[in-house]
Amino acid sequence: MASMAERDHQVEFFIPAPACTCSGPVSLRDAEKLSRLEVLMSEVEERFPSAEIVRYAMSDDRGYAEGLKKLAAYLRDIGEEDFASRVAFSLRYVLPAVAVDGKLVAYGRVPDLEDVKYTLETGEVLRGE
Asked: Looking at the domain assignment, is residue 103 inside a domain?
């Protein structure tokens, strides 16, 4: 029987729009988050080649619609009903977000590679923020 780490997994990245007219120019902090998210996506692809990587670019219509629905469901799953019910208005607080196998690993921050690895290997999410 294959171990949890050997199975195929899905890692979803919810990528914030760099800037839009509703939120103004990109702050230095937001630019740094985007940069760290890009690094994490590359690391996950490299370290876990059998994992399916799904990117929801919240800057395009299709990614926004699909990502919004998925992210709201994940927020509900972890008890964040307030964010989930108004996720379209809370994107600034919940993005970036990363989910592994349908479990929200982090939102509003870029998780460490070790957080993603832990969930890929155990099926559990570290909650200690």
From this structure: yes
Total domain count, the chain: 1
CA of residue 115 relative to chain centroid, distance: 12
Distances from the Cα of 118 to the Cα of 31, 69, 83, angstroms:
26, 25, 25
Write the CATH number for 103: 3.40.30.10
Largest Cα–Cα separation, the chain: 51
Residue 128 lies in a domain: no
- The string of pLDDT tens digits covering residues 71-101 is 989 999 999 888 777 776 777 788 899 999 9
**Predicted confidence (pLDDT) per residue in 106-115, tens digit:** 999 999 999 9
